[in-house]
Amino acid sequence: MLGCAPTRAWAKGDTLTWQGATRTARFGMWSLQAEVTEPGDLDAQVAAILSRLTQDETVWAEVGSRYDLDLFCGWFMKYSNEGMAIGPDTMSALGARGIPLDIDLYSGDSEQVPDQPSIGRSATRRAR
User: Fold this and answer.
1) Is residue 12 within 8 Å of residue 26, measured between CB atoms?
2) Which H helix or E strand runs over 9?
3) CB 61 within 8 A of CB 95
4) How far apart are CA 75 and CA 104, in angstroms?
5) Which of 17, 32, 33, 119 has the maximum number of C-beta atoms within 10 A of its C-beta?
6) Model pLDDT, residue 36
7) CA distance 53 to 71
8) What gap in Å lies between CA 98 and CA 17, rounded to an integer?
9) DSSP state of 79
């Protein structure tokens, strides 16, 4: 239906084992994982996932009417102040499919930040 096999999946009621612990799944899940990139390129990774899946918007409407859609991205930063961008084509493709983008940001070590003022601090100083 979606055009490719998931990286991992389970159904509600399945027995799941993780790190030696066993539990019963309270909900089903279908997951497709992107390849890790160095340096990170969120736009390219999201586009790569979408390219593997069907582009048929009627399929996405059907899936979205039956299941909660979510594209989860964990962004692990090396420094405490980094940026990322999602291009308009990628945002449009997500919107056409009704897929919300859920990003969790994990801050890097502020001790590793180079001795240069951050963009936010510079802008704040100019504003005063």
Assistant:
1) yes
2) strand 8-10
3) no
4) 6
5) 32
6) 84
7) 13
8) 31
9) S
Structure tokens at 17: 């084992």
Per DSSP, the three-state class of 29 is strand
Residue type, 105: L
Q: For tokens 């612990």, what's the residue?
A: 21
- For residue 75, the one-letter residue type is W
Q: How far apart are CA 27 and CA 12, in angstroms?
A: 4
Residue with tokens 């449009």: 92
CA 102 to chain CA centroid, Å, is: 6
pLDDT digits 0-9 by tens, 97-123:
999 999 888 887 655 544 443 333 333
Per the CB < 8 A criterion, the answer to whether 94 and 68 are in contact is no
* Long-range contacts, 55-63 (Cβ 8 Å, 24+): 57/96, 57/97, 59/1, 59/2, 60/96, 60/97, 60/98, 60/99, 61/98, 63/1, 63/2
User: Residue 72: enclosing H or E segment and its boundaries?
Assistant: strand 71-76
Segment 28-72, tens digit of pLDDT: 989 899 888 888 788 999 999 999 999 999 999 999 999 999 999
